[in-house]
Amino acid sequence: MIKAEEKTMRDEMQARFWEEYREYIKATPMTAYERRLLRKWVSECHSVYDDPGSRYLGCSAYPMPFLDVYRMDREFEHEMKGMSPDEKIEYLKKATGWDDPSPGELAMDEAKMNTPKLIEALVRQLERDYFHLREFVMMKGFAEEAMQYVRDLKDEEIPFEW
To answer: Is 84 inside any structural domain?
Structure first.
């Protein structure tokens, strides 16, 4: 019984997809080859609006219709023709707005990964203390005097300095 219901549901979905396909090809200019690719996609029980995932970018956070993804991939192929693998990677990074982390960001990430949890907790507490002390000084109107005090003593050793 369940198999029959599943088959009926699948048949209904497929019928909707074919209707959608007929409307789509009337409204969307495409080559005969693109129409054949789209027909094959729909015959596999997909909507014309289903995102197949780009060959180069994977699935998008913003789903794109099958034909748009196909055309985008073809454009990438055309633009990257004759490029070395490294050049292709750089081209795709630029095309998608990918930014490699800066050396400073990489160093900070590594430091975070290698910082023992106890030290990390102490640093967070110091950051919170500093924030609240600074806020207090600002609220009391001592900001200018406090900054001058810090400038005057910035090179002085502190009692617990190593």
So the answer is: yes
Q: Is residue 160 part of a domain?
A: no
Q: DSSP code of 58?
A: B
Same domain, 142 and 114: yes
Give the structural domain span for 138. 103-153
The Cα-based distances of 56 to 5, 70, 76, 150 in angstroms read 38, 11, 8, 53
The Cα 159–Cα 122 span in angstroms is 18
Is 148 part of any domain?
yes
Contact criterion met (CB below 8 Å) for 131 and 139: no
> Contact at 8 Å (CB) between 96 and 57?
yes
Query: What does residue 26 show for φ and ψ, rounded to 5 degrees?
Result: -70, -35
Residue 132 covered by a domain = yes
Task: Find out whether 86 and 57 touch, Cβ atoms under 8 Å.
Answer: no
d(CA 77, CA 67): 15
pTM above 0.70, yes or no: no
Number of domains in the chain: 3
Ramachandran class of 99: left when φ > 0, alpha when ψ lies in -120 to 50, beta otherwise: beta
Model confidence over 95-144: pLDDT tens digits?
A: 888 878 888 888 888 887 887 887 888 888 988 988 888 888 888 888 88
Q: Are 42 and 24 in contact (CB under 8 A)?
A: no
